[in-house]
């Protein structure tokens, strides 16, 4: 009888001592115990590697690989080469899963589905949580249905100006043979540190014969701040982005219209560099709630992420109202903009409205509840569904 596991879970680890235990506890506690767990210590210097060895010492399913710092692309690839299973999935070392996450996918693995897609929850700390919506209907897709319903917008939905399938590898379970074929195409790429997931995902999607998109959201993705990603600050950002572009245009050739989709996505990603200079890359979809706030009002603008910065720009251009305070729970990330901490907002601050500049209703609800606990009435809290 073969001892081969149905599913391997690969976790690249680099300096994640603060979160790795929560991540590994959630994987080791899975109700589907037929797992192989491969931890790839990517040259950590904060003790993460020792924590990985600790878990290997107490759970026979856990193996640890140690390597010099080569980046997540190579760490995942080396984990993939070391594992032996029919299916593979990935978990980022600061994320975690519901206990039955993999058990929910077992029936689809038993049916031989090539790519299983499940939902994830964006965990935003004090700002609550966000449930991203799928761009596709839930359920099974045959090869013909993949070509008809997924391929036209798989990489970029031109009509709606958004990505198609989620780019992450962590919210998917994929046949190992497909991953191996896609990773083999990347052997000449060194440290990329940008767009590693779609670099692997898009090529293999052209070979998939079946896909199942699940409604469940068992993966918890930690996103506690809206700080500018490190890759957008790097001087070689455009060099790395061009490598990404050249790789995809060379290897995603079996999806009709793929080049156009790749180029639209490339242009979108390139424009994101504007954030490095304090400009907003994309702003057309957000509009300050003028109909809810009268001209000349004194407002507190709550939120300094993309929505908040767009609102602030619109207010200033029109001289529409007086912003008596601009606040964000992560005020240190926006100190150069004069943003203050949300703790200053109470009944002693003179204002007409608090405008919540957040796109997520769930996060807005959490903020509104905080404000109510501070004694601020509902009619002073304004939010517009962006």
CATH class of the largest domain: Alpha Beta
Average residue-wise pLDDT: 91
* Class per helix and strand makeup: alpha/beta
Quick one: overall form? globular
Oligomer state equals single chain
Q: How would a textbook summarize the main sheet?
A: 8 strands, mixed
| Strand fraction | 15-25%
Report on this structure:
- This protein has 386 residues and is α/β, with parallel strands linked by helices.
- The chain has 2 domains: 5-275, Spore Coat Polysaccharide Biosynthesis Protein SpsA, Chain A (Alpha-Beta Complex); 290-382, NAD(P)-binding Rossmann-like Domain (Rossmann fold, 3-Layer(aba) Sandwich), CATH 3.40.50.720.
- The protein is built from 12 helices and 18 strands.
- Strands 3-2-1-4-12-6-13-9 form an 8-stranded mixed beta sheet, sandwiched between helices. The chain has a 4-stranded mixed beta sheet with strand order 5-14-7-8.
- α1 links the parallel β1 and β2.
- α6 packs across α7, α7 packs parallel to α9 (237-251) and α9 packs antiparallel against α10.
- The longest helix has 15 residues, at 237-251.
- The chain is globular, with a radius of gyration of 23 Å.
